[in-house]
Amino acid sequence: MTQAEMTRLIAAAQKAREQAYAPYSQYRVGAAVLTEEGEVYLGCNVENAVYPATCCAERVAIFKAVSEGRRRFRALAVATSNGGSPCGICRQVMREFAPEMVVYIANANGEVRRTTVAELLPDSFGPEDLGFVTGK
Ligand code: THU
Protein backbone atom coordinates (compact mmCIF):
# COMPACT_ATOMS: atom_id res chain seq x y z
CA MET A 1 0.00 0.00 0.00
CA THR A 2 1.70 3.19 -1.14
CA GLN A 3 1.16 6.58 0.45
CA ALA A 4 -0.57 7.71 -2.77
CA GLU A 5 -2.97 4.74 -2.71
CA MET A 6 -3.79 5.42 0.92
CA THR A 7 -4.42 9.12 0.29
CA ARG A 8 -6.61 8.28 -2.71
CA LEU A 9 -8.63 5.73 -0.76
CA ILE A 10 -9.28 8.09 2.15
CA ALA A 11 -10.27 10.89 -0.22
CA ALA A 12 -12.69 8.48 -1.91
CA ALA A 13 -14.28 7.61 1.44
CA GLN A 14 -14.63 11.31 2.31
CA LYS A 15 -16.29 11.89 -1.06
CA ALA A 16 -18.61 8.88 -0.64
CA ARG A 17 -19.71 10.34 2.68
CA GLU A 18 -21.47 13.12 0.77
CA GLN A 19 -23.98 10.52 -0.46
CA ALA A 20 -24.89 9.31 3.02
CA TYR A 21 -28.61 8.89 3.56
CA ALA A 22 -28.78 9.52 7.29
CA PRO A 23 -31.90 11.57 8.04
CA TYR A 24 -32.47 9.83 11.40
CA SER A 25 -29.04 9.78 13.01
CA GLN A 26 -27.47 12.62 11.01
CA TYR A 27 -24.30 10.54 11.36
CA ARG A 28 -22.85 10.48 7.88
CA VAL A 29 -20.43 7.72 6.93
CA GLY A 30 -18.46 7.09 3.75
CA ALA A 31 -16.37 4.06 2.88
CA ALA A 32 -14.04 3.02 0.09
CA VAL A 33 -12.61 -0.45 -0.41
CA LEU A 34 -9.58 -1.18 -2.58
CA THR A 35 -9.63 -4.50 -4.41
CA GLU A 36 -6.58 -6.66 -5.13
CA GLU A 37 -7.16 -5.72 -8.77
CA GLY A 38 -6.76 -2.03 -7.89
CA GLU A 39 -10.34 -0.82 -8.24
CA VAL A 40 -12.09 1.25 -5.60
CA TYR A 41 -15.71 0.62 -4.61
CA LEU A 42 -17.59 3.25 -2.63
CA GLY A 43 -20.30 3.03 0.00
CA CYS A 44 -22.28 5.29 2.29
CA ASN A 45 -24.66 4.51 5.12
CA VAL A 46 -28.24 4.05 3.97
CA GLU A 47 -30.75 4.46 6.78
CA ASN A 48 -34.38 3.43 6.89
CA ALA A 49 -37.51 4.54 8.73
CA VAL A 50 -37.49 0.99 10.10
CA TYR A 51 -34.17 1.58 11.84
CA PRO A 52 -32.76 -2.00 11.76
CA ALA A 53 -33.06 -1.99 7.98
CA THR A 54 -30.18 0.49 7.88
CA CYS A 55 -26.94 -0.61 6.22
CA CYS A 56 -23.54 0.77 7.17
CA ALA A 57 -21.21 2.39 4.64
CA GLU A 58 -18.56 -0.31 4.97
CA ARG A 59 -20.96 -3.11 4.12
CA VAL A 60 -22.44 -1.18 1.22
CA ALA A 61 -18.94 -0.76 -0.26
CA ILE A 62 -17.96 -4.41 0.28
CA PHE A 63 -21.28 -5.78 -0.97
CA LYS A 64 -21.09 -3.62 -4.08
CA ALA A 65 -17.63 -5.03 -4.81
CA VAL A 66 -18.64 -8.64 -4.10
CA SER A 67 -21.73 -8.27 -6.27
CA GLU A 68 -19.41 -7.23 -9.11
CA GLY A 69 -17.23 -10.30 -8.65
CA ARG A 70 -14.49 -8.87 -6.42
CA ARG A 71 -13.70 -10.87 -3.30
CA ARG A 72 -10.14 -9.94 -2.42
CA PHE A 73 -9.42 -6.62 -0.78
CA ARG A 74 -6.27 -4.79 0.23
CA ALA A 75 -7.61 -1.91 2.27
CA LEU A 76 -10.74 -0.13 3.37
CA ALA A 77 -11.12 3.50 4.42
CA VAL A 78 -14.02 4.80 6.46
CA ALA A 79 -14.78 8.48 6.93
CA THR A 80 -16.98 10.10 9.56
CA SER A 81 -17.12 13.45 11.35
CA ASN A 82 -15.38 12.17 14.48
CA GLY A 83 -13.32 9.15 13.43
CA GLY A 84 -15.83 6.56 14.64
CA SER A 85 -14.70 2.96 14.43
CA PRO A 86 -16.48 0.31 12.27
CA CYS A 87 -19.32 -1.53 13.96
CA GLY A 88 -19.14 -5.19 14.90
CA ILE A 89 -21.27 -6.42 12.03
CA CYS A 90 -19.05 -4.62 9.51
CA ARG A 91 -15.95 -6.04 11.17
CA GLN A 92 -17.37 -9.53 10.69
CA VAL A 93 -18.12 -8.84 7.02
CA MET A 94 -14.58 -7.50 6.51
CA ARG A 95 -13.22 -10.62 8.16
CA GLU A 96 -15.13 -12.90 5.77
CA PHE A 97 -13.36 -11.56 2.70
CA ALA A 98 -10.19 -9.90 3.93
CA PRO A 99 -8.98 -11.03 7.35
CA GLU A 100 -5.62 -9.35 6.75
CA MET A 101 -6.92 -6.10 5.29
CA VAL A 102 -5.70 -2.70 6.45
CA VAL A 103 -8.37 -0.30 7.70
CA TYR A 104 -7.99 3.49 7.72
CA ILE A 105 -10.35 5.43 9.98
CA ALA A 106 -10.57 9.12 9.11
CA ASN A 107 -12.32 12.08 10.66
CA ALA A 108 -13.50 15.28 9.00
CA ASN A 109 -10.25 17.06 9.89
CA GLY A 110 -8.37 14.54 7.80
CA GLU A 111 -6.83 12.83 10.80
CA VAL A 112 -6.36 9.12 10.10
CA ARG A 113 -5.88 6.07 12.27
CA ARG A 114 -4.46 2.92 10.69
CA THR A 115 -5.55 -0.46 11.95
CA THR A 116 -6.27 -3.94 10.60
CA VAL A 117 -9.23 -6.31 10.54
CA ALA A 118 -7.26 -8.68 12.78
CA GLU A 119 -6.85 -5.91 15.36
CA LEU A 120 -10.48 -4.85 15.10
CA LEU A 121 -11.82 -8.39 15.44
CA PRO A 122 -9.41 -10.65 17.35
CA ASP A 123 -10.10 -14.35 17.88
CA SER A 124 -12.79 -14.21 15.21
CA PHE A 125 -15.06 -16.86 13.75
CA GLY A 126 -14.59 -17.40 10.03
CA PRO A 127 -15.12 -19.67 7.04
CA GLU A 128 -12.38 -22.04 8.28
CA ASP A 129 -14.46 -22.78 11.37
CA LEU A 130 -17.12 -24.21 9.06
CA GLY A 131 -14.53 -26.27 7.22
CA PHE A 132 -14.18 -23.90 4.29
CA VAL A 133 -10.79 -23.06 2.88
CA THR A 134 -11.11 -19.58 1.48
CA GLY A 135 -9.96 -19.80 -2.10
CA LYS A 136 -12.29 -16.87 -2.91
N1 THU B 1 -22.67 3.48 10.65
C1 THU B 1 -21.90 3.13 9.57
O1 THU B 1 -22.24 3.41 8.43
N2 THU B 1 -20.75 2.47 9.83
C2 THU B 1 -20.31 2.11 11.07
O2 THU B 1 -19.36 1.35 11.19
C3 THU B 1 -20.98 2.68 12.25
C4 THU B 1 -22.36 3.14 12.02
C5 THU B 1 -23.92 4.19 10.39
C6 THU B 1 -25.17 3.38 10.64
C7 THU B 1 -26.17 4.47 10.93
O3 THU B 1 -26.67 4.96 9.71
C8 THU B 1 -25.36 5.57 11.59
O4 THU B 1 -24.01 5.31 11.24
C9 THU B 1 -25.51 5.62 13.08
O5 THU B 1 -25.31 4.39 13.67
Description:
This protein is 29% helix and 21% strand. The protein has helices at residues 3-17, 57-67, 88-97, 117-120; strands at residues 30-35, 40-44, 73-79, 102-106, 112-116. It has 136 residues and is an alpha+beta fold. Strands 2-1-3-4-5 form a five-stranded mixed beta sheet. Bound molecules: tetrahydrodeoxyuridine (THU).
Relevant terms:
single chain; 136 residues; alpha+beta; five-stranded mixed beta sheet; globular; binds tetrahydrodeoxyuridine
List the helices and strands and how they pair.
Layout: H1 3-17, E1 30-35, E2 40-44, H2 57-67, E3 73-79, H3 88-97, E4 102-106, E5 112-116, H4 117-120
Parallel strand pairs: 3-4
Antiparallel strand pairs: 1-2, 1-3, 4-5
Tetrahydrodeoxyuridine (THU) binds at residues 22, 25, 27, 29, 45, 47, 54, 56-58, 84, 86-87, 90.
In short:
The chain is an alpha+beta fold and 136 residues long. Helix content is 29%, strand content 21%.
Mean pLDDT across the residues is 96
Structural class: alpha+beta
Number of helices: 4
* Shape by Cα distribution: globular
Ligand inventory:
tetrahydrodeoxyuridine
User: Which H/E pattern describes the elements?
Assistant: HEEHEHEEH
Largest sheet: 5 strands, mixed
User: What distance separates the N and C termini?
Assistant: 21 Å
Calculate Rg over CA atoms. Answer: 14 Å
Strand segment count = 5
Percent range of helical residues: 25-40%
Q: Order of strands in the sheet with the most strands?
A: 2-1-3-4-5
Uncertain ranges: none
Note the beta-strand portion: 15-25%
